[in-house]
């Protein structure tokens, strides 16, 4: 029997693997929300298909240490943990996963590392929202340790006609800090306990000496490019204050005064090593425009500007 057929067999028999308590819970969900139940059924089928496929490979093909893409193996579990929102309207009932519902409000979430998969999702959402209304603002919530430079640049280059407001909740490190700084001027925010980190790109190379030299030149070019992007978006007004902030003993402040360091030189030295900042320091550095202490009060009907 072909492996693809085994996957289909395992998928079709997913209900037989579920425990009695799980089936009872599924029946209650199905009665309350048929659409939500359909999503759970698909997720359970995919998980059982994966588990069955893995055991069949181990049993019949001697694969005792099966290495499958983490995105595939973890997707069904993550899918079942995403909350669903059920809405009632004159046209009937409709359920959304929570991130799709936020997308309706033009809110995009970047949670976790920046890699090709997450970048493709962010890019697709940005393009969709721009096509829907190119003048209306988009909110990008960032909680990311950073990741791939090329994936981050794909998101950065897709900052389209719609103004993109950025907000850091948790952390915005490495490429995450660059995406945070690249938001619409005046609409770059961070929460009080957010952590922001900048540094230079890192990488490695192996092979012939000439190939290593090529990769070394490329990573230096990328570093220069990233520094120019930071310089373009950072609103640094007080170089002495920034110099003092980036040095434990205050030597930077003296260097700025005596050596007349330029903004470019200051940025290059600031990202020479991991440069961590809290929200207050990021505000001084010009990476953000405002620290949000609390949510603004909603404007009530009749209270608009006269």
From TrEMBL:
The active site is at 199. Signal peptide: none annotated. GO terms for molecular function: ATP-dependent peptidase activity; ATPase binding; serine-type endopeptidase activity. Pfam families: CLP_protease (PF00574). GO terms for cellular component: endopeptidase Clp complex. Keywords: Hydrolase, Protease, Serine protease. InterPro entries: ClpP, ClpP/crotonase-like_dom_sf, ClpP/TepA, ClpP_His_AS. The keyword Protease applies. One of its GO terms (biological process) is protein quality control for misfolded or incompletely synthesized proteins. It catalyses: Hydrolysis of proteins to small peptides in the presence of ATP and magnesium. alpha-casein is the usual test substrate. In the absence of ATP, only oligopeptides shorter than five residues are hydrolyzed (such as succinyl-Leu-Tyr-|-NHMec, and Leu-Tyr-Leu-|-Tyr-Trp, in which cleavage of the -Tyr-|-Leu- and -Tyr-|-Trp bonds also occurs). NCBIfam families: PRK00277.1 (NF001368). HAMAP family: ClpP. Belongs to the peptidase S14 family. This is ATP-dependent Clp protease proteolytic subunit.
């Amino acid at each position: 029997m072909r492996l693809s057929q085994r996957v289909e067999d395992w998928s079709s028999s997913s209900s037989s693997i579920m425990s009695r308590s799980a089936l009872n819970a599924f029946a209650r969900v199905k009665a309350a929300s048929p659409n939500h139940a359909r999503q759970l059924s698909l997720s359970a089928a995919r998980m059982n298909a994966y588990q069955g496929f893995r055991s069949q490979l181990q049993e019949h093909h001697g694969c005792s240490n099966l290495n499958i893409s983490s995105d595939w193996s973890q997707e069904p579990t993550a899918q079942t943990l995403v909350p669903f929102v059920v809405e009632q309207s004159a046209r009937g009932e409709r359920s959304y996963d929570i991130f799709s519902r936020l997308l309706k409000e033009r809110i995009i979430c970047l949670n976790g590392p920046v890699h090709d998969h997450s970048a493709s999702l962010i890019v697709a959402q940005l393009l969709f929202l721009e096509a829907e209304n190119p003048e209306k603002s988009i909110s990008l919530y960032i909680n990311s340790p950073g990741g791939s430079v090329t994936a981050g640049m794909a998101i950065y280059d897709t900052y389209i006609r719609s103004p993109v407001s950025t907000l850091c909740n948790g952390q915005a490190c490495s490429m995450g800090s660059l995406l945070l700084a690249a938001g619409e001027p005046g609409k770059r925010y961070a929460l009080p306990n957010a952590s922001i980190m900048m540094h230079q790109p890192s990488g490695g190379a192996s092979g012939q000496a000439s190939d290593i030299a090529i990769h070394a030149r490329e990573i230096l070019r990328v570093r220069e490019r990233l520094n120019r992007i930071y310089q373009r978006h950072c609103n640094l007004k007080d170089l002495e204050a920034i110099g003092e902030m980036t040095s434990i003993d205050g030597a930077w402040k003296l260097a700025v005064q005596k050596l007349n360091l330029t903004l470019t030189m200051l940025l290059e030295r600031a990202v020479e090593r991991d440069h961590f900042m809290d929200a207050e320091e990021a505000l001084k550095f010009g990476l953000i425009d405002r620290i949000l202490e609390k949510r603004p009060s909603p404007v009530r009907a009749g209270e608009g500007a006269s």
